[in-house]
Automatic annotation (TrEMBL):
InterPro entries: Cyt_P450 (IPR001128), Cyt_P450_CS (IPR017972), Cyt_P450_E_grp-I (IPR002401), Cyt_P450_sf (IPR036396). It comes from Glycine max. This is Cytochrome P450. Pfam families: p450. Belongs to the cytochrome P450 family. The keyword Iron applies.
Length: 550
């Protein structure tokens, strides 16, 4: 009898809870099922989760609610509406913080800039800002990247080309950016990028820590907490990865302290890596503070650039006319006819406006950080009319924002660097609450300028030397991780130098988009504006403009 009553009471309580959820969730994005909430449609479309969310947000006017399984803290308000984004990120900035749940999930970041709020965040931000803007750091950055491209990246690709090997460009860029960020932050190069493709323990540990952080987003808190306590599964990997990373970073800090104390004065000019600058800035920074700063900078500068470069090369390889235009710009603006370009200086990459537009276009379509997460402190009303209760989690889909017809037009799904080029030939300014790849408001990315420098140096050096092709029947699918990488990497093959005809085609011709790509080539350069031979050709399956089969 008692069991019978207990079942009835439980059923009634469940029904009340279900109704309560329904009443609270006024703008559901998906059907809300008992117990499992809105998970089923997401789980069934996991392989295209970002596109699913973009589509659903579009159907619901840009903002709506997601409720997770019962008694979990997965409920959130998701938005891709620029007015809401401006409100959350800038106008009412102080009401929206990272919060304790974020810090719990991103525990490996310690008290660094990414997880910090209020005064701690402000302190970190001012500190990093002064470090990045330092002239000697800019110079150090330029030399470090030039050296890495010249002495590791290009030789590695040469080797792969000679061996006729399939190259996973994503892996190559992952190694490249890891070496770079280690050099920039610690003044130490672990040489992950070399022809024998070594397995470097610290790089592996970073990957595992990031996978575990993503895992914590996908399961209820009690599950990963229990796993952590029992030291099993992904949580065991997380503990081991953090141990490896901490040992490495602390060893670097200790040796740097010895190195600096051996110097006659702390101000020796040759130390310009960020850890030295941090120690110099304030000698009272303890090891814990420096460890957290180093970890946060590693994450900031590694996967974001890897993601952006990988998607950029995939988009360029599948849009040969864009590739041709980039090469044309390099030849025209830098007045070079040399077969090899070498690695450009900061001053020279700044001249490459079309390349800049192509990178912006990549970041619009594939923002390396696809979601931004905030927690409301007090109740608020979004400009779209959605109510925000205290402790509501807000997710901003950067991915969906890059595909909004209202912002980018009907051709928003096309890769068109031209949309970034103004009539005067400069870069079109788009406010950050619309072009949000680098975040918006007071927490805008501090590494934006140095990211462009790095990406443009790499892109120009590779494209000028090679005509990158992706392997046949390759499909690029976004990975499910905190950074938007390509699932299974970017497999490229048949690395050929760009053939003369390829560049000529761009130089003599004009490329434009009329729904289908046409390439209009003039017979004589001098006749460019008078006589067009309208020779249309389809993009060949394997991009190769050099053979001019029309
Ligand atoms: C393509 C490259 C990059 C992209 C798309 C990018 C994007 C972003 C985004 C979306 C945020 C906000 C993250 C959050 O608050 O959760 C951010 C913050 C930040 N980024 Fe970047 N980032 C890039 C490269 C870099 C690099 C190379 C560095 C420096 C080494 C850097 C340093 C930072 C820092 C310090 C913050 C924290 C700012 C704050 O909270 O005040 N980023 N970045």
């Amino acid at each position: 009898m008692l069991v019978y009553e207990a079942v009835i009471v439980t059923a009634v309580l469940c029904m009340l809870y279900f109704l309560h959820r329904k009443r609270c969730c006024r703008h559901p994005l998906f059907p809300d099922y008992p117990i499992i909430g809105m998970l089923p449609p997401v789980l069934c479309n996991l392989w295209r989760a970002h596109d699913l969310i973009s589509d659903v947000l579009k159907q619901h006017g840009g903002t709506g609610e997601f409720t997770g399984p019962w008694f979990t803290i997965m409920n959130c308000l998701i938005s891709s509406d620029p007015i809401n984004v401006h409100h959350v990120m800038s106008k009412n900035f102080h009401n929206y913080v990272k919060g304790p749940v974020f810090r719990d999930i991103f525990q490996a970041f310690g008290d660094g800039i990414f997880t910090a709020d209020s005064e701690a965040w402000k302190y970190n931000r001012d500190l990093f800002h002064s470090l990045f803007k330092n002239r000697s750091f800019e110079f150090f950055l330029e030399k470090t990247i030039q050296n890495k491209v010249q002495n590791s990246l290009l030789p590695m690709l040469d080797h792969m080309h000679q061996q006729r090997k399939v190259v996973d460009l994503q892996d190559v860029f992952g190694r490249f950016t890891f070496d770079n960020i280690c050099s920039l932050v610690l003044g130490y190069d672990p040489n992950c990028l070399s022809v024998d493709i070594p397995e470097v323990a610290i790089e592996k540990a970073f990957n595992e820590a990031e996978e575990s952080i993503f895992y914590r987003h996908t399961v209820p808190k009690c599950v990963w907490k229990l796993q952590k306590w029992l030291q099993i599964g992904q949580e065991k990997k997380m503990t081991e990865a953090c141990k490896t990373l901490d040992q490495f970073i602390h060893a670097c800090i200790a040796s740097k302290r010895v190195e600096l104390s051996n110097d006659n004065e702390m101000g020796e000019a040759h130390h310009v890596d960020l850890i030295t600058a941090l120690m110099r800035e304030k000698q009272t920074h303890d090891d814990r503070f420096i460890r957290d700063a180093v970890f946060n900078l590693f994450v900031a500068g590694r996967d974001t650039i890897t993601s952006a470069l990988t998607w950029f090369f995939w988009l360029v390889a599948t849009n040969p006319l864009v590739e041709a235009k980039i090469l044309e710009e390099i030849k025209e603006k830098l007045e070079t006819n040399e077969k090899t370009l070498g690695v450009l200086s900061v001053e020279k990459v700044k001249k490459l406006v079309y390349l800049h537009g192509a990178i912006c276009e990549t970041l619009r379509l594939f923002p390396p950080i696809p979601f931004e997460r905030k927690l409301a402190i007090k109740a608020d009303m979004l400009p779209s009319g959605h109510r925000v209760n205290p402790r509501t989690m807000i997710l901003i889909s950067l991915y969906a924002m890059g595909r909004l017809e209202e912002t980018w037009g009907k051709d928003c799904l096309e890769f068109k660097p031209e949309r970034w080029i103004s009539e005067k030939g400069g870069i079109v300014y788009v406010p950050s609450y619309k072009f949000i790849a680098f975040n918006a408001g007071p927490r805008t990315c501090l590494g934006k300028d140095l990211s462009f420098i790095q990406m443009k140096m790499v892109a120009a050096a590779i494209l000028y030397k090679y005509h990158v092709q992706v392997v046949e029947d390759y499909v690029a699918t976004p990975s499910l991780s905190i950074v938007l990488l390509i699932k299974d990497g970017l497999k490229t093959t048949n690395w050929e130098p760009p053939q003369p005809g390829f560049i000529e085609c761009a130089k003599e011709g004009q490329c434009f988009d009329v729904g289908v790509w046409f390439c209009v080539i003039t017979m004589e350069h001098s006749l460019r504006h008078k006589l067009f031979f309208n020779l249309d050709f389809k993009i060949p399956k394997k991009p190769s403009c050099g053979d001019r089969t029309i």
